[in-house]
Inverse folding.
């Protein structure tokens, strides 16, 4: 696979470690995956949607898990992954929704996981939402619950704003973008510097970040699978292309806030928030006094619920950024209740 064009000056520069990530060599036992995560198996069969976008032929990997005959409730849930996650990370949630009779569709967005990673692409939440809508049209889905986690919460919000008639309900799980970091004083990081930071990611640093942020300084052996998934792409032969796409999407996340449009959401919205989460893009680059004010999900969840007209807020005081993985039984009980209350 061809590499993206990167300035030789940048390649010669020192690696800049992103906040929370180590910059040492990848652990020797980290598996090496290519740009489309070949060799890492999801719990459900992966399908491909081929389409044209921005003058390129692309493929979006996705999961389409149909309910058992006689158990279908007639509803579809579309799952949108976060920036450090994949469609496969939703496996526990897919299982619960499938058992409850839902059809579940979980795409890997362009630039992520098993989908195409373009050398050049104008990443925007509008574009990713449009790509997702094209997939749903191909699958014959004209109305669904749109559920997003982390970065996927920003994407789900944008999708709901663009396609309100196709969105029967919006669900956000610890979404990032509940605050505008740049407006709060976080300095901008160029894509070139972001690319260098991405090249410094490895299994050790990824695990440390996840432990502190996703799981509130706890760790279970089953979490290792998600470290392997992410770190393996940085360890493989296509690591430069992976890092380049991650730098482009980081810029998208930082520069395209959705928080100012929450009051325009016209559908019932369920917020599932782990209050111990402290995620804030670029926080490590901000002045110390500003860092302390960012990523306060115990505050941000309530602010979002106040801004969204038809919001229901469910908080988990002791959970972090990934409550669906950290405490799946408790999380899914609240999720299924929130879906059934529609």
């Amino acid at each position: 696979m061809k590499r993206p064009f990167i300035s030789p000056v940048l390649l010669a520069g020192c690696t800049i470690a992103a906040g929370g990530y180590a910059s040492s060599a990848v652990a020797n036992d980290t598996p090496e995956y290519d740009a489309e995560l070949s060799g890492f198996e999801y719990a459900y069969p992966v399908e491909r949607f081929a389409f044209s976008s921005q003058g390129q032929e692309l493929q979006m990997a996705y999961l389409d898990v149909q309910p058992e005959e006689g158990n279908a409730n007639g509803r579809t849930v579309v799952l949108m992954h976060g920036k450090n996650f994949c469609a496969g990370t939703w496996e526990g949630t897919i299982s619960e929704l499938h058992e409850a009779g839902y059809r579940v569709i979980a795409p890997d967005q362009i630039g992520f996981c098993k989908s195409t990673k373009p050398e050049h692409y104008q990443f925007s939440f509008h574009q990713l939402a449009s790509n997702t809508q094209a997939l749903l049209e191909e699958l014959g889905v004209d109305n669904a619950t749109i559920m997003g986690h982390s970065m996927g919460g920003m994407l789900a919000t944008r999708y709901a704003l663009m396609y309100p008639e196709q969105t029967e309900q919006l669900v956000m799980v610890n979404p990032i973008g509940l605050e505008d970091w740049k407006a709060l004083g976080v300095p901008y990081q160029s894509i070139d510097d972001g690319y260098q930071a991405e090249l410094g990611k490895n299994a050790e640093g990824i695990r440390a970040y996840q432990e502190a942020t996703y799981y509130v300084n706890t760790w279970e052996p089953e979490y290792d699978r998600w470290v392997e998934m992410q770190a393996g792409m940085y360890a493989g032969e296509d690591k430069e292309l992976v890092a380049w796409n991650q730098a482009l999407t980081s810029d998208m996340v930082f520069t395209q806030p959705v928080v100012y449009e929450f009051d325009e959401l016209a559908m019932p919205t369920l917020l599932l928030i782990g209050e111990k989460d402290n995620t804030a893009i670029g926080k490590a680059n901000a002045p110390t006094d500003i860092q302390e004010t960012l990523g306060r999900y115990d505050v941000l969840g309530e602010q979002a619920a106040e801004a969204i007209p038809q919001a229901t807020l469910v908080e988990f005081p002791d959970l972090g950024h990934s409550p669906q993985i950290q405490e799946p039984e408790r999380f899914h009980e609240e999720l299924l209740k929130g879906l059934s209350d529609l």
Observations:
- Residues 8-340 form a domain with the Rossmann fold fold (CATH 3.40.50.1820).
- The mean pLDDT is 92.
- The chain has one domain: 8-340.
- The chain has twelve helices and eight strands.
